Amino acid sequence: MDELIQSHPISERRACRVVNLSRHLRVYQLKRVSEQVIMDEMSQLVADHPSWGCGKLHQALRRAGRRWNPKRVYRLYHQMGLHRRPKLKKRLPRRHPQPLSPSPAPNECWSIDFMRDALSNGRKFRTFNVVDNFNRQALAIEVATSLPSRQVTRLLDQVADGRGYPQRLRLDNGSEFTALHFKDWAKQHGILLDFTEPGCPYQNAYIERFNRTFREDVLDATWFDSLDEAQCLADQWRHLYNEQRPHDALGGLTPLDFLAQARPTSLLLHGSI
């Protein structure tokens, strides 16, 4: 078509009539993005976020202003061999999980938990994770070889300095959380300790889901040589998790975007996040 218009001094309308082509179809073909462009952007996203599936990739593309059809993205996703093998569900005994009620406001309930890993030299370390159940925001990830109750309360005080104390803490029955110092600290700040039942991690599903993502993206994907390196990467990933990673439970928004929509702008300007 372009060669016909260039070689003959005729209009686009007449050229389309000669070759029996709809002008609307020609405009659509001109606006249609090359599949190679889509594949290149998806390859870059997968290189930066290996654990993201097709849904997360499409949400990230939409956030970047790419209004590409999800079916087209899904087809290219499989054509490039990026699809991940589905995990088989384990057979579990019958349980009676308690329904999780979503938090109606920020700082209504925080979930806290520990994780374990090891450095390249075999030295073991722990991470202490704090999540706000309202918008799934990761408030803190502390890396250390030992995290007693006094260090846990010190970290929670640091988080509360810029955000305020929560009304309730959702936690398991670990020795750090059942210690007298931790209970006195919670009573001093008027915080209710909402313990899960022993052997029932699904009662604290928000932090358990966060732990799984942190495990796949950071702990299992990285070989740490020092605690400082682990802390640095954990902090970098936490900012990416809060500011760039879309969440299905939040309607495809990031935790900070969801918080910005839910709270007045005046509160955000006073450093509440």
Gist?
The chain has 273 residues and is α/β, with parallel strands linked by helices. It has helices spanning 2-7, 12-18, 23-31, 35-48, 54-63, 70-79, 149-163, 175-178, 180-188, 205-219, 227-243, 255-262, 265-269, and strands at residues 110-118, 124-132, 137-144, 168-171, 192-195.
Can you put this structure into words, describing what you see?
The chain is α/β, with parallel strands linked by helices and 273 residues long. It is 47% helix and 12% strand. The protein contains 13 helices and five strands. The chain has helices at residues 2-7, 12-18, 23-31, 35-48, 54-63, 70-79, 149-163, 175-178, 180-188, 205-219, 227-243, 255-262, 265-269, and strands spanning 110-118, 124-132, 137-144, 168-171, 192-195. A five-stranded mixed β-sheet has the order 3-2-1-4-5, sandwiched between helices. β1 (110-118) and β2 (124-132) form a beta hairpin. The longest helix has 17 residues, at 227-243. The protein is elongated and about 90 Å long. Residues 265-273 have low confidence and may be disordered.
Derived from helix and strand composition plus strand pairing, the structural class reads alpha/beta
Low-confidence spans: pLDDT under 50, at least 5 residues?
A: 265-273
Give the termini separation. Answer: 56 Å
Q: Outline, from the CA principal axes?
A: elongated
**Secondary-structure element pattern, one letter each:** HHHHHHEEEHEHHEHHHH
